[in-house]
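Reading a protein record of the kind used here takes only a little practice. The record below shows the convention in full.

——
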Amino acid sequence: MQRYKFSELSLELIESLIDFSEISTGKWKPEALPLRENEQIIVSYFKERLQDEQLLLLNEATVWGKAIYPLLTMVEQNSISAWAQVPMSATFNQFVVEGFVDGVVGTKKTGHLSAPFLVVVEAKKGIEAKEPQYQLYGAMLAAVRQNWNEKPEEPQIIYGCYTVTDVWVFVRGEASRINDDKPALTIQTSREFVERVEAEIILGILKAITAKNEQ
């Protein structure tokens, strides 16, 4: 059985492995929940810090620590937890996808991450860098398979996000035929959200996604 790293995936390869489709009639408009007063204060602090940063000159790990991961941790509550650098692997009938995901939000059970509902991929710099959305789709497939193994219901809804410096693009995925030779995945993509000016909206979207997946 062929194994594929998330970083190896391209549109052509994904289309050869699964029945892939993208709803392209207008951008998906994700719901955003209102922020509490204390969340407003924290987000304002993050925005103020980012205004003075030259993010394009920073490496990925620094951008992740300053801009991306702090917002993910703000949706942690009860059993919901945000994790960084998470190894993921999923075996389908005809192929395996695997690799590390920059960020995952899901349910925490006895010290490990269960039921991931949001996966986040940070765009890498350099000549060898690949387009982040295809790595994200692979990670979303892995999360779908893990969730299906725990609760075999269809369709499986999974959320993703890829980031480029402080720009966030959200993705909603709907997967079916998980146990077929060629699973199906349909995605919808949001517009770009720039954290240094739209951090409140980004956190509101993260809160809405979390609220849909609270158990």
